[in-house]
């Protein structure tokens, strides 16, 4: 009896335990589990990111993405911000080229690069200097298309209201902010004698130029941005801003007219697609420099390097071929022109693998040649510009390079609009024999999106002639040599200048430099390397974003 009673108790106890266990399981499994927050490694993001030239602008772009904005929305907000954080590089007085991938993987190019004004001086190219120097003055100002580019991009891909993209920058410009380091250094290059109006906005009340860390405001520009935010792009091209801008530009010796602004149109075209290993690389066609980037990559791809060169001999061989590839690319630059004005068949061939094979066949492993061998004709190296890369949560991506050309462009400041004007027409120097009204100057800009399955790499660079240098180096080191995005971008570069001389970034391997000199490469010193690559990559579900330390940039994401 007692035994069977005990058995009943045991049984009940077991049943009870089972019941409790079931209840516990039910409670735990149906409770909304806190999402295992990204297993993405430290320093990476799980959803989206923006890599701009300054942390502030990356953050402004990220905030827009977090509010449900598209990659284009984030890009426009971050570009507007860059116009005040790095006003020496870009702004609404310039132009830009967007490479946009939508969430289904379709890619378009939006081109709002400056054009030659209708009254451009036919003899303008006679004023080109023989070697690089800061060229200022109203005669070099191209028709600023920047805002038409934003308008077109937003019309096609925008999600948030247009005005919302302007608000963060308007607030900053009005309230003021500490001058970032690179802007501060650029301000020191302003010359009172030549550019009084520019001097005025970048100086304190005692007339001394401002320095990094001091507070600057751009109140006039804030008014202009507010008008564009509230009234749309037309106010810039046919309204009050157009009138003021034309007046100020003509005052400064420029030839911009109301008709130039009124007739300016941003264009939308297909991207060029270049197979790059397992990736498809999307780049803008001429007048941008995408074809030259593709040439360099295709030449180097043919050497089938699976890992980074280790021994000094291997490094010398790699860099010798790489420098030779750039020497050929420099000789081919003159074929990159605005296709609406000068259609160069060769420009279309340059990006092809077969053309790269031909050029590779001309590269000797143990010697280099005089500039004539590469058909090099003199042109001007340039500098400046900004690039930003954006990847949104929905998979849409933007690589956009924007510029007023040289540091502070033409150095013409329009007092009634707060706009700094570009000197984009200097990009024709050495690259063209004549200029047609409406023509876009050739460019090195190559905002690129690379896609392979679910992996995506959004990249681009600033730095004028050093754009191709920075991009090629970062892509080769990352995609083929397996370096992290950050290490790849930080790798010291060799720049092959417009005379085919080589310039090595500090920290470049000294033994390799010696060996390359022994092979006959002509070395020159360079003090500053302004190749600046800003990139965002999504791989294995995590987002890595890197802004180049060379410009003290920082990315932001979530
Ligand atoms: C600017 O002008 C002043 C006087 O007019 C002259 O002394 C000075 O050398 C000039 N500076 C430059 C950089 O040309
Ligand atoms: C360069 O290499 C070629 C074969 O690739 C060889 O015939 C030639 O002698 C070499 N020249 C020098 C200077 O080493
Ligand atoms: C240099 O120009 C000549 C004449 O146009 C051409 O035949 C040759 O292929 C060019 N070489 C290169 C490397 O582009």
Explained architecture:
- The protein is of the alpha+beta class and about 550 residues long.
- The chain has helices spanning about 1-30, 55-65, 70-85, 145-155, 160-175, 180-185, 195-200, 220-230, 235, 240-250, 260-265, 290-300, 310-330, 345-350, 355-360, 465-480, 485-490, 510-520, and strands at about 50, 95-100, 105-110, 175-180, 215, 265-270, 270-275, 280-285, 385-390, 395-405, 410-415, 420, 450, 455-460, 460, 495, 500-505, 530-540, 540-545, 555.
- It has a domain at about 50-175 and about 215-270 and about 385-470 and about 530-555.
- The protein contains 18 helices and 20 strands.
- The strands form five sheets. Strands 6-3-2-10-9-1-20 form a seven-stranded antiparallel beta sheet. Strands 7, 8, 13, 14, 15, 18 and 19 form a seven-stranded antiparallel beta sheet that branches.
- A hairpin with a 2-residue loop joins β13 (about 450) and β14.
- α12 packs parallel to α16.
- The protein is globular, with a radius of gyration of 27 Å.
- The termini are far apart.
- The protein binds 2-acetamido-2-deoxy-beta-D-glucopyranose (NAG) (3 copies).
- One 2-acetamido-2-deoxy-beta-D-glucopyranose binds near residues 328, 331, 374 and 375.
- One 2-acetamido-2-deoxy-beta-D-glucopyranose (NAG) binds near residues 365 and 366.
